[in-house]
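User: Can you recover a sequence for this backbone? Please restate the input before giving your answer.

Assistant: Of course. Working from this structure:
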């Protein structure tokens, strides 16, 4: 059990992959188009890839406010019978990660549907997300960069990239009030002029079917595409004087946040981490340990962990309540059948031992413990408890028949009753195990959409069917013998003082 990792749910093979690299802010539209075509050609070099289609920036939709530096490339694969021998989706992802190397881009290959669900629920596009919360964008950027550097050295981390939220470039126009007033211009008027000649002023609207587009008038791009050109922008003052924008303003380029995100009333910066080759729980545990040891958080800055790990933590917190309740209910039901706490406790004590086979099979298959696996273990616990209940009922019935024939039956009669009751359960139990295995093996060995989840549910049951029957047939009869002998000895000790003893002992 100590060798098993943990994850929320196993990664399903959706048949396609989504390539979502993270580029640095300030990417131009032309450069984004060039990088998109370059990455598409690199992806297409993998033989298993059939089609590649990518987009940069936002789509023509109000529900997809993606920045220009966000690429979304859908990768469609050939049928599996055309793949190279021995190739799996994990191997293809590793080969794609090696094939795509572009300076300034950090690779991330994720299943499309799962990525959409994660982004809608948590806002994190990678399996692991680290949220740095605080009040100063510059401080948040510094801490995020430190966490990125630490995360890259953690085993099992495929890629790590921090948002460059404070790496935007802005043209700052500072109006010199006295110089503007000398020409009869107020700050409001200067700002209106700048907004019109640089940003554009709507002067009308065009109608194209059901769509409406504004008509905007502004200076040509050549006269406003650099700081020097902005300084030379002509302005006509209220008194008719001809001047340039540089005569009444200070224009310079300054760094600032390209995008401000907030969460729980604080500014936030994200660090995206992708795990590769290790389970999610182990990678997050090592990441948390490394960040706590190597990153010193300034006052007012906190770190929160999100992504699929957030689901895992929530599920584990709920299972800590659900699993004990399920075990208590099973114990009460067993007690209602036997009316003896010792026999109910005997069956409950056998349940964890019955799960050993499931743990071994999960380890042999290389699976991690997930919510699907725990569901399989809960089902296995119910079947194991049922095995124990039926075995104990057969043993009690056989012992009751012996007592009916001889009320003073001793250990020899008890052994005979245990043999009779246990042997009568061999054939029904073998049939039960055979039926369960026959139903689960196709699920365990099957392939297709959703098979990864079903295999995690079936694996504990299949492994448990190899140990739970042996436990109920070998251990429970021996434990039942110990319980009956203990009650028999107590009964003899209670009645011994009332028997006549000629020797006076």
């Amino acid at each position: 059990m100590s060798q098993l990792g943990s994850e929320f749910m196993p990664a399903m093979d959706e048949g396609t992959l989504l390539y979502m690299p993270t580029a640095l802010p300030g990417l131009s539209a032309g450069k984004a188009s060039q990088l998109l075509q370059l990455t598409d050609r690199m992806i297409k070099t993998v033989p298993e890839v059939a089609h590649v289609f990518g987009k940069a920036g936002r789509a023509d939709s109000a529900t997809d406010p993606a920045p220009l530096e966000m690429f979304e490339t859908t990768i469609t694969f050939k049928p599996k019978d055309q793949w190279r021998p021995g190739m799996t989706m994990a191997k293809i992802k590793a080969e794609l990660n090696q094939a795509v190397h572009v300076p300034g881009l950090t690779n991330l290959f994720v299943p499309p549907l799962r990525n959409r669900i994660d982004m809608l629920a948590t806002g994190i596009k990678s399996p692991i997300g680290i949220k740095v919360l605080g009040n100063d964008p510059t401080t948040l950027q510094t801490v995020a960069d430190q966490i990125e550097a630490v995360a890259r050295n953690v085993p099992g981390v495929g890629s790590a990239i921090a948002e460059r939220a404070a790496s935007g470039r802005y043209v700052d126009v500072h109006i010199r009030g006295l110089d503007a007033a000398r020409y009869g211009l107020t700050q409001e008027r200067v700002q209106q002029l700048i907004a019109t000649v640089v940003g554009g002023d709507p002067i009308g609207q065009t109608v194209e079917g059901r769509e409406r587009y504004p008509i905007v008038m502004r200076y040509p791009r050549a006269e406003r595409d650099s700081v020097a050109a902005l300084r030379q922008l002509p302005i006509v003052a209220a008194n008719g004087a001809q001047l340039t924008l540089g005569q009444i303003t200070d224009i310079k380029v300054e760094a600032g946040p390209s995008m401000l995100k907030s969460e729980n009333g604080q500014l936030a910066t994200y660090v995206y981490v992708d795990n590769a080759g290790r389970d999610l729980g182990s990678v997050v545990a090592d990441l948390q340990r490394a960040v706590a040891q190597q990153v010193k958080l300034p006052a007012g800055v906190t770190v929160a962990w999100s992504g699929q790990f957030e689901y895992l933590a929530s599920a584990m917190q709920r299972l800590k309540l659900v699993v004990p309740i399920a075990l208590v209910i099973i114990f009460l039901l067993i007690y209602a059948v036997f009316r003896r706490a010792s026999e109910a406790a005997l069956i409950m004590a056998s349940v964890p031992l019955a799960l050993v086979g499931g743990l071994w099979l999960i380890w042999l298959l290389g699976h991690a413990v997930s919510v699907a696996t725990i569901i399989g273990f809960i089902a296995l616990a119910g079947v194991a408890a049922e095995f124990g209940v039926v075995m104990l009922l057969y043993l009690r019935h056989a012992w009751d028949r012996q007592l009916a024939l001889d009320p003073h039956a001793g250990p020899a009669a008890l052994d005979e009753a245990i043999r009779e009751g246990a042997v009568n359960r061999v054939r029904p139990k073998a049939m039960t195990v055979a039926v369960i295995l026959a139903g689960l093996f196709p699920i365990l060995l099957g392939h297709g959409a959703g098979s990864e989840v079903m295999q995690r549910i079936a694996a504990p049951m299949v492994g448990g069917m190899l140990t739970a029957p042996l436990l109920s047939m070998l251990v429970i009869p021996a434990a039942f013998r110990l319980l009956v002998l203990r009650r028999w000895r107590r009964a003899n000790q209670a009645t011994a003082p009332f028997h006549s003893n000629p020797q006076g002992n």
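That completes the design. Residues 498-505 have pLDDT under 50 and may be disordered.
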